[in-house]
Amino acid sequence: MSDNSSNNAYWSANMRLIVVSLVIWALVSFGFGILLRPMLSGISVGGTDLGFWFAQQGSILVFLAIIFFYAFRMNKLDREHGVDEE
Predict the structure, then answer these.
(1) Cα R_g (the chain), whole angstroms
(2) Which of 28, 31, 54, 64 is deepest in the core (most CB within 10 A)?
(3) Share in percent of the chain as helix, strand, coil (round to 5)
(4) Mind listing the pLDDT tens digit for each residue in 35-57?
(5) CA 80 to CA 74: how far, in whole Å?
């Protein structure tokens, strides 16, 4: 019974991490790049407005940061639950 609850805790933490990562990704790419672009147009970053920057480069950089954070956090989660590869 303890093994099943440990598996459930592991997958629950994994799914929570995935959902949070997807919400951040959607907020940055869709929210800042499309929906909030008119409000962000007055802020200048690198010679262009902030909304355009998020749509073109910011969402890609945030996506890369999410990938590295996810890999780091999953390695830690694997070690905590004893399912690491090493």
Answers:
(1) 18
(2) 54
(3) 80, 5, 15
(4) 888 887 888 877 888 878 877 88
(5) 10
Write down the number of H helices and E strands in the chain: 4, 2
Decide: helix, strand or coil at residue 48.
Answer: strand
Instruction: Identify the three-state secondary structure at position 43.
Output: coil
Please calculate the CA angle 7-66-41 and round it to the nearest 5 degrees.
Answer: 145
pLDDT at 13 over 70: yes
Predicted pLDDT at 37: 81
d(CA 16, CA 2): 21
Distance of CA 28 to the CA centre of its chain: 9
Strand partners, 45: 48
- Is residue 3 scored above 50 in pLDDT? yes
